[in-house]
Structure formats: C-alpha cells, structure tokens
Amino acid sequence: NTLISVVGMVILFPMHSLIEKLCYIVIKQDPSENEDLSEIEHLDDSLLNYAPAALEVSKKAALKMCDIARKNLFRSIRLLTEYDRSKYVKVQDKEALCDKYEDKLGNYIVKIGKNGLDDKQQAISSELLSVIGDFERLSDHAANISESAAEIDEKKIVFSDEATKEINLLIEAAGEILTLATSAFMERRRDLAIKVEPLEEVIDEMTKLFKSNHIERVSQNSCTIVTGFVYNDLLTNFERVADHCSNIAFAVMHSYDINAEEHMYTANVADSDEFKNYYKQYFEKYILPISKDDE
Question: What span, in angstroms and rounded, lies between the C-alpha atoms of 35 and 67?
C-alpha cells in the first residue's frame, strides 16, 4: 500500500495544477463568494505599523460586512413569502461568512490599537469594533428568520388574516429600519441615523401589541400552538434586528460627538422635536392601521 501511494504521488504530482483546474470546472463556485471575501483578504499585517492605512482597509472591510449582512437579512425575509431551498442555504452560507468577517476584522482592529492611536483614530477603531458585532448579529437573525421560513414551508403553516397583517407590517418596519441604519453607516449620514431611534421605539411597541393580540387569538382558539411558536420567533427576531440597528445608528451619531454616552444620547434624542415628529410618522404608518382594526 505504501509503495502504491508513493508511485501515485510521483505520477500525479506533476499534474497537480491541471487537477486543480479540473476541480474548479467540476465544482462551480459562486463568483460572489470570492468578491465577498475580497475585503478581509486585504487586512495585511504589514500595514499595522501605519494606522491610517490599516484603519482604511478595516473600514472597507466593515462596509463590505455591512452590505453582506443587509442583503442576507432581506434574502431571509423574502423566504417568508417565496421559500426556496437554495436561497435558504445561501442565507446560512452568508451568515458563516459574517462570522469570518467578525473574527478576522475584530482581531485585526485590536492589533491596530496595540501600536498606539490618536483620539480620532481611537474613535474610528472603537466604532468599527462596535458595529461589526451588530452586523454579525444581524446576520444571525437572518439565519433565524430563514429557519422560521423553512418551518413554515415544511409544516404548511398558515397564519390568520390578523397575524399575517401584523407580520407584514413588522417586515416593512424592519426593512425600513435596516435600510436607514446600514445606509447611515455606509454613507456617513446623520440625517438617516437620527430616524432610527424613533422607529426602533415604534417597533418595540408593535411587538408588544402584536404579542398581546396573539395571546387573545390563542384564548379564542384561532391560533395553534405550532403557529404561535413560529409567530413569536419572528416577532423576537425582528425586534432584535431593530435593537442592533439602533446600536449602529448610535455609532454613527457618536462619530459626530465622541463624548456622547449612549444612555444620555437616547434620553436627549427622545426629548427632541425631531424625534417626536419622526415617532408620530412611524406610529401612524405602522401601529395606527392595527389599532383602527381593533376599534
């Protein structure tokens, strides 16, 4: 056996490049996979002695991670109405990719900090470390939502008309807050970030109201236990998505005022006319339609 193995190696070794090419032909790769990995491959340790360059490649990697997480969440949401096994698998793959980003990018940013940073560089480093954790969690929730979609498809779960309307409203609100928060980060737009907190408050109220409505439906036997579990899982995941979007928006706002504390920021924003105006708009858009139905 040893002799056969050695002979095989001698024969095949000169052909290893050809074999590798044949593998790429037979096992077709999604071109987007290499594209999505491109930014973390630029995290070069040789740049660590020059903080501006190292932070620049880190920012580009964070932007790519943000884009991957956002697309993955929208991909998982689409599965709730148009389930596709291949898309489900892609959600899981992209979630694993976000894990890689958080691990490699997080470690790289920590290394940058070991060489000493000025105040501005430290603020950038802290923001990146904060938001990549939220991007990773967003992709975790995408995976969770895709699992709920798979369960709905497998068990042929059908929600009541009331529950369907609530889920659709929550999906719309979650999509809006996700777009606001990720766009605020990617485009450095304070005008978008300021809209996130009032919408997050409305989404919190939506989930409380919808859970109360669900309990009432259960008491009236208009909802099964299995349906209720999936429904509650969706509410929880969308509520957590909003929480992480709030964190991302705070990180953007914090970049305008590095001395701001999160609890003080939230309190000050909630007292502003800007917050109250946006809150009123979102309340009328997402909660009032349900409240009117209950009258």
Answer: 12
